[in-house]
Amino acid sequence: MTRHDQDGWTRRSALSAGLIAVSATAAVSACGTETGIAEAGHPGRRARSRAWARRTLRKMSTEEKIGQLFVTYAYGQTADTTDPEDVKRNQEWVGVDNGQELIEKYKLGGIIYFGWSDNVEDPKKTATLSNGLQKAALGTGSKVPLLISTDQEQGVVVRVGPPATQFPGNMALGATRAEDKAKLAAEITGAELRAIGINQDFAPTADVNVNPANPVIGVRSFSSDPQLAADLTAAQVAGFQSGKDAVTSCAKHFPGHGDTATDSHVDLPEIDHTREEWEKLDAPPFESAIAAEIDAIMTAHITFRALDESGDPATLSKPILTGLLREELGYDGMVITDSLSMDGVNELYPLEEVPVRALQAGVDMLLMPPKIDVAYNAVVDAVAAGDVSEKALDKSVERILTLKHFRGIVDDPLVDVDKVDSIVGIPEHLEAADRISDSSITLVKNDAKLLPLEADGLSVFVTGAGSAVSALAKALKDQGAKTTEYDTGTEPDQAAIDKAVADAAGADVVVAVTREVAAYPNQAKLVKALDASGVPVAVVSVKEPYDINQFPDVETYVATYSYTDVAMGAAARGLCGVFNPSGKLPVMIPTADDPQKPLFEFGHGQTY
């Protein structure tokens, strides 16, 4: 891979010429076929998928077609659950008892899984749930199987937890600079999801995190560097979508959510980039995903006036989704909204208008409308009135059906529950996750030469923010250290700070865990108090690496990009010198006072 330079990107967009700039890792391919699945890779297979979709489409009623546009959730660990609590929640949410009845009522195109909806508690249970939901779909209406999706971005956004293999996430992959590692992480994640019946992953996040204060993207992004983000996006698309265990990959959030200071879950963010800045900063990963033949792209609930002066969110913007994404970038694949339950997309229009406006803008699938009955009936009425044309409806449904057939969901919709344990969380996958995590650990500062620690018998006090404290203490103990721990929480009061300092007094070394210190500034007080105590202190940041700009005088600082157990295991091995840290900052760390002034440059990283 070429060296990536924050101030001198080697790749410029050629949008004005109607071209797609191709990532270093993406195979050059022609995109823009009738269904959006490019012909370059498997022309015969793709043609068969398109033909099946058209045959099936001709047999479908208008209501069945409209059902294919919707993706939502149902509570319960089984498709026909009778659990009283799940039934109660389903009745309150959508007026049915369970997922089976939901599919029968709306002829859904997709289902999405979450922990809070009781869908992913255990891999075998999830596989059984998936089979039950698929059987419901196959017994309903046009008998088309479901896209079953989740957000398995890895790192800080994970729906399927252990024993499934966990990885440290996108920014950690950015720190490795390794496309092969990004691809392998996606391959393993995709194979394990497919084994439990999930055939669509809303990943990778293709946003370029150019704003350190971004409250919703952050470590979900590969990098602040468009080229690095583009290369790793293409690598992950290839990993998710290759081989017999492929899942549908979905790049998000178009046209780019990386420079927002507002969370679109609660408000409508606005991007103030010019068109030229969008081409340079935001576009490259999406161009790269398209060149890599991405199956789907998810929209962003953001206002981007340089791309659509109306101020409509991108999810509802025809200039952005049809004019820019489809016509200029040449993408004719499946487009899905981000969750329509998020406040950002519902700020300007009534609930019944939002799904219709999304379809008119160029969307194919509607994710999680807050009231599905309102959304479904609004689309039925819009089609009947001609506000959404039958031609446009057919085009969207053809894309959805073609994708389902091409990814093997039509031919093989069910999974073998007995094989789950031979795929999910197996030693080979866990070892790969450890190797990738190890290569992401970034030694930012080691001025006192405190690291590596001689762990055997060393008294180490681990303190700071959240569950990572316990996970890191356990991992250090596995390396031979004698550990004690105290979780101060993310916003420790003075009593907690005083207790941490007192507990540190008997230790040989203090390891202070930090997370989002700019938002929770009392952590900086904790670090400074520990640093002044006279006991050597190593600070380990477990989310965005920017924390050090709140305590720049600390002498030892390590960035891990994730607070997951797999990242804490890698952090402990790195602290103790099991490997020589090789991670490089995938973002610039600015000073606290000036976001344009580097405290540590993009690409910085020390070794022992």
Give your account of this protein's structure:
With 608 residues, this protein is α/β, with parallel strands linked by helices. 37% of the residues lie in helices and 11% in strands. The chain has helices spanning 43-59, 62-68, 84-94, 99-106, 123-138, 170-176, 179-195, 226-240, 275-291, 318-328, 354-361, 372-385, 390-406, 427-440, 468-478, 494-504, 522-531, 565-575; strands spanning 70-72, 110-112, 147-150, 200-201, 248-254, 270-271, 296-299, 303-304, 334-336, 366-367, 442-446, 459-464, 482-487, 509-514, 537-541, 556-559, 589-590, 598-600. The chain has an eight-stranded parallel beta sheet with strand order 9-7-5-4-3-2-1-10. A six-stranded mixed beta sheet has the order 11-16-15-14-12-13, with helices on both faces. Helix 6 crosses helix 14 and helix 15 (468-478) packs across helix 18. The protein is globular and about 75 Å long. The protein starts with 42 loop residues before the first helix and ends in an 8-residue tail after the last strand. The model is unreliable at 1-40 (pLDDT under 50).
Short description, anyone?
With 608 residues, the chain is an alpha/beta fold. The chain has helices at 43-59, 62-68, 84-94, 99-106, 123-138, 170-176, 179-195, 226-240, 275-291, 318-328, 354-361, 372-385, 390-406, 427-440, 468-478, 494-504, 522-531, 565-575, and strands at residues 70-72, 110-112, 147-150, 200-201, 248-254, 270-271, 296-299, 303-304, 334-336, 366-367, 442-446, 459-464, 482-487, 509-514, 537-541, 556-559, 589-590, 598-600. The radius of gyration is 24 Å and the shape is globular.
